[in-house]
Structure formats: C-alpha cells, structure tokens
Amino acid sequence: MSLSLTYKVLLKPEPEGGFTVNVPALPGCITYGETLEEAKVNAQEAIELYIESLKEHGEEIPTDIDVLEYSLQLSP
C-alpha cells in the first residue's frame, strides 16, 4: 500500500510575471512557473524529486500534518 502525502504550497505572483512556489514543509523546495498551471505542475515534480532524494539518502520524509496555518493582518 502506498502512502499518500499532501503538502501545502505557497504560490507568489512575481512582478516580472509567473509564480514562485515554496513548499514550507520541505526546506529549500522552491520552483517557478510562468503560469499558475505550470507552477502547480512544477511544484508536484519538485516535491516528488525532493522526496525521492530523501528516500535515497535514508532520511525521514517530513509532512505538514501537525502544522497549524493562520494568517495575521497588520495595520501599517
């Protein structure tokens, strides 16, 4: 039976166009896409490659199951 993993991704629109994608649970797992769809596809590929590398090195695969997500709004 294969384990299903879910990760939160942050997609940030860039001023020059496109989107930078960051996967907080996987330090250094960052990618980019010129469109939102491309960014999502690239994020999935980056996560898969990251996890593959962890497995090859016998390292634990982190998840963000226990991470609480909250947004704070501050007044300038």
Please give a structural write-up.
With 76 residues, the protein is α+β, with helices and mostly antiparallel strands. It has one domain (1-76): Double Stranded RNA Binding Domain (2-Layer Sandwich). The chain has one helix and three strands. It has one helix spanning 36-56; strands at residues 10-13, 19-22, 30-33. A three-stranded antiparallel β-sheet has the order 1-2-3, with helices on one face. A hairpin with a 5-residue loop joins strand 1 (10-13) and strand 2 (19-22). The protein is globular, with a radius of gyration of 14 Å.
- The biggest beta sheet, please? 3 strands, antiparallel
Structural class: alpha+beta
**What's the number of domains?**
1
Mean pLDDT metric? 93
**Which strand order do you get reading across the main beta sheet?**
1-2-3
The count of strands amounts to 3
What is the CATH third-level topology name? Double Stranded RNA Binding Domain
Shape category: globular
Query: Helix count?
Result: 1
Order of helices and strands: EEEH
CATH architecture: 2-Layer Sandwich
Strand % is 15-25%
The CATH class designation is: Alpha Beta
What is the topology?
Elements: E1 10-13, E2 19-22, E3 30-33, H1 36-56
Antiparallel strand pairs: 1-2, 2-3
At a glance:
The chain is 28% helix and 16% strand.
Key phrases:
76 residues; alpha+beta; Double Stranded RNA Binding Domain; three-stranded antiparallel β-sheet; 16% strand
